[in-house]
Design goal:
It is a single chain. It is globular and about 60 Å long. The chain has 461 residues and is mainly α. The termini are far apart. It is 73% helix and 0% strand.
């Protein structure tokens, strides 16, 4: 898998991604502590609003950036977004009001909504070989999972040496380092695109593109299935572990770690698995694992805790992590095979926006556990997951071609000719556009002046 790092451009981009992810993880920990300092026991409300703002920024900003991506060099765009994120992170320690946190979080996440789809659209262009791109997708999945495990540990170590304000400094340095790596990387320029309409029409182009392609519609349905399962893990784990199972606080990161471990193991195995099977087979089979896994989780929450409850929870969470990774990781391959090169930024931006819209829907549903109870909440999300996966299987044709041809819209039909109206003149046939000698031209001109026949007969008559 590491052989893909021999490509210097990808190596710098991947390093920039890892550094930025670690910085984002540090900022998440520091933001929690800052919210507690400013709001006390109301910190959860502040953080909930901040995460909602994050999702709104992702859903709204990404399509707009996809609409103008063809006008801005990618290196300039990605560097500018890193500098904006660095500035927002550097300003967070100096806020004194809650609204200031929300403004800076929107600015930071809006920049991330522009950076991430551009990064995703650039990788397949610098790694044209299918095997290399598959390895890059797996490494990107590993980077996200390792960040979720490594960043809290690093933050804990740093907090023993300095106050939490310094975590924001680490975030700022991470984004600046990412910008420096991108500046030093030669990236392909944006492909010329011929589209009509204003920014709104261009922003909706990627969404229309995904909706017009059956397997891309199926990909969106699979994103909803993953969001339903992932929301249970990310939102309800603490209530299940601390409340229902009555485990100590240290058991919460262990449960989340089981989810991450399942995802990482699958990411390591996917390049070999995808050489033997199609994207459709791998993704749908993994997605159909999610509803019964969630049903097992619901059964676990509905029964009295036993000695076996804790290891069963770890196994179920690892299974969900593995299935989610198998669904999410090949998604870039599906978009790449379904989209023309010039449309990749718009397609990735649309998928980024719509997939986070799924999370914006399922997060509040998972939060209903406080009111209606864990068993019913998990069962409802299992039903959502099952419906989305079934829809994906129906939408994705079983005999799907490997690549889709880029089809341009057909020209409009010619208007009917009004009776009695003279037929408009048509240009002469192509074969008549031949250079004539000077003698022939002079002879034709003389005959036309004298009214003599020229010897030319119009083939249209």
């Amino acid at each position: 898998m590491l052989s893909v790092l021999r490509n210097s451009a990808y190596r710098r981009l991947f390093t920039a991604q890892v550094i930025a992810l670690v910085g984002t993880g540090l900022a998440t920990v520091a933001l929690s502590l800052l919210a507690y300092d400013l709001a006390g026991e109301e910190a959860s409300a502040v953080l909930g609003t901040a995460f909602t703002i994050k999702m709104i920024a992702y859903v709204t900003i990404a399509p707009v950036i996809g609409a103008v991506a063809d006008r801005i060099p990618r290196r300039v765009l990605m560097t500018a977004m890193d500098l904006i994120r660095a500035g927002a992170a550097a300003a967070l320690p100096f806020v004194s009001e809650i609204w200031q946190i929300h403004v800076l979080i929107f600015l930071l996440q809006a920049a991330s909504a522009a950076f991430t789809p551009t990064f995703q659209a650039t990788v397949p262009e610098i790694l044209p070989a299918e095997g290399d791109y598959t390895r890059a997708l797996s490494m990107s999945r590993l980077a996200y999972d390792l960040e979720s495990l490594f960043s809290p540990v690093l933050a804990t170590a740093l907090l023993t040496l300095a106050p939490y304000d310094w975590l924001f400094a680490g975030t700022t340095l991470g984004f600046l380092a990412s910008a420096a790596l991108i500046v030093a990387t030669a990236l392909p320029g944006p492909a010329p695109i011929e589209r009509t309409g204003g920014v709104r029409a261009k922003a909706l182009f990627g969404i229309r593109l995904l909706w017009a392609t059956p397997r891309l519609r199926a990909l969106l349905a699979l994103d909803l299935a993953v969001a339903a399962a992932g929301a249970v893990v990310l939102v309800d784990t603490v209530s299940l572990v601390r409340g229902h199972l009555d485990r100590p606080a240290g058991a919460v990161p262990l449960a989340l770690g089981a989810y991450g471990a399942g995802s990482m193991v699958t990411a390591l195995l996917l390049p070999r698995l995808l050489r033997r099977s199609t994207d459709r087979a791998v993704m749908l089979r993994a997605a159909f694992v999610l509803p019964p896994a969630l049903a097992a989780g619901a059964a676990l929450t509905a029964t009295e805790p036993r000695v076996w409850s804790w290891p069963v929870l770890l196994a179920v969470w690892a299974m969900i992590g593995a299935a989610c990774s198998a669904v999410l990781t090949p998604g870039g391959r599906v978009i790449r095979r379904s989209t023309a090169g010039a449309d990749l930024p718009a397609a990735f931006a649309a998928r980024f926006s719509l997939s986070h819209g799924c999370w914006l829907l399922t997060y509040p549903m998972a939060g209903l556990a406080a009111g209606v109870g864990l068993p019913l909440t998990v069962l409802v999300l299992a039903a959502v997951c099952l419906c989305a996966t079934t829809a994906a299987a129906a939408l994705w044709p079983a005999r799907d071609p490997d690549r889709l041809d880029h089809v341009h819209p057909a020209p409009p039909p010619r208007p009917a000719r009004t009776p009695g109206r003279p037929r408009p003149a048509r240009p002469p046939p192509r074969e008549l556009h031949r250079p004539l000698s000077t003698e022939v031209v002079g002879d034709l001109g003389a005959k036309m002046t004298e009214g003599a026949p020229t010897g030319y007969e119009d083939p249209r008559e």
